[in-house]
Amino acid sequence: MEKELCQICKHRIAEHRFVRVVGGVETTYSICSHCKALMDNKYRELQEEAARKAVPPEMRVCSVCGSTLQSFSETGVLGCENCYHVFDDYLIEYIRGYHGAVTHVGMDATAVPPDVEALFKELADLIAKEEYEKAQALNDKIKRLMGGGDDRL
Ligand SMILES: [Zn+2]
Ligand SMILES: [Zn+2]
Q1: Residue 5 domain flag
Q2: For residue 132, which ligand has an atom nearest its CA?
Q3: For residue range 89-115, what is the model confidence (pLDDT) as tens digits?
Q4: Å from CA of 101 to ligand 1 middle
Q5: How far away, in angstroms, is 11 Cα from ligand 1 center?
Q6: Do 44 and 20 touch, CB atoms closer than 8 A?
Q7: Please, which residues have CB within 8 angstroms of residue 107's CB and are 6 or more apart in sequence?
């Protein structure tokens, strides 16, 4: 019988065969030790992520700067890059709804430059892709565009 190659790297001999259920879908893996270690790490990350998301955003506290959702809604400013990680699912919804909210309350819609809407979309995408560093930089840019001369920000 021929040796089976790892189905991930397609290079090393598969030494492990196991079934993993993710999102109700059963998949059989035949993989090498090297890829199994990588996969176990990723799997653990996903589990930690799921555990974190199970806590409602208003109960979360940033472990780096101590920001909470309440401090964010009071100031509109997040404390650090890690905050984006802690509140990402909430932020995506918040940002996606934000521009709509601005125009709906009948504030001067023309005060929002058209490219800010595109920037908000980009920001939500960056957070979804977990590019928090870029997200924070973009958020600062949006704040400057939106805030004009407001030096509170
Ligand atoms: Zn492999
Ligand atoms: Zn923080």
Answers
A1: no
A2: 2
A3: 888 887 777 655 544 444 444 455 667
A4: 48
A5: 6
A6: no
A7: none
